[in-house]
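Entry 14. Structure prediction run on the chain below.
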Amino acid sequence: MAIRILLVDDHEVVRFGLCSLLERHEEFAVVGEAEDGLEAVELASELLPDIIIMDVNMPRMNGIEAARSIRKQSPHSKIIVLSMHRQKQYVLDMLEAGACGYILKTKAIQEVIPAIEAVLEGDVYLCPKVAAVTTKALVTKDRPDDSNRTSELTSRERQVLQLLAEGHSSRQMGDVLGVSEATVVKHRQNLMDKLDLRSVAELTKYAIQHGITSLEI
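Output returned:
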């Protein structure tokens, strides 16, 4: 069965380009298109797509508010942000709203398919430029004061958090760490249990907020 995809962007040319790209792959089916966030919420509830590729800045309802509504009505739908903006606040707000991926429009051709594959596997996908800018932009004063929980993490768990913040998938993390993908998934679950988080998106946001980078591991 094909992966059902909803495209959301107020520019018709962007939707047309995405549709043309996705239609080259038999495993994907574009089941709907929306011009703004409000229409996206309505179509998501009606169509129950597997994947929603959505912009942030749109008329009537922005992507952040739309993502929050969609997560309530269609929680199984995976939201991937496709935006011109790579500022950290956009990324953090969309992750908090329930997005599982964030890619830039300038890299759409290269990044859309890997992003879809990653979120379908349960990972969060941040394109390298987004991950780098978001991590570097954070300074110590921006981090929540819950260092006790972070200090309880093992070295390997901190490595996994670092790789999440850098936008790596579970498979890529396994290659970097020299362990199986199943082991990475287990570490990820242990992290969620220790940090009282419910999703990979929340883990990724936690890692970014706390500036867990290669300099700290």
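The chain has eleven helices and six strands.
Filed with the rest of this week's runs.
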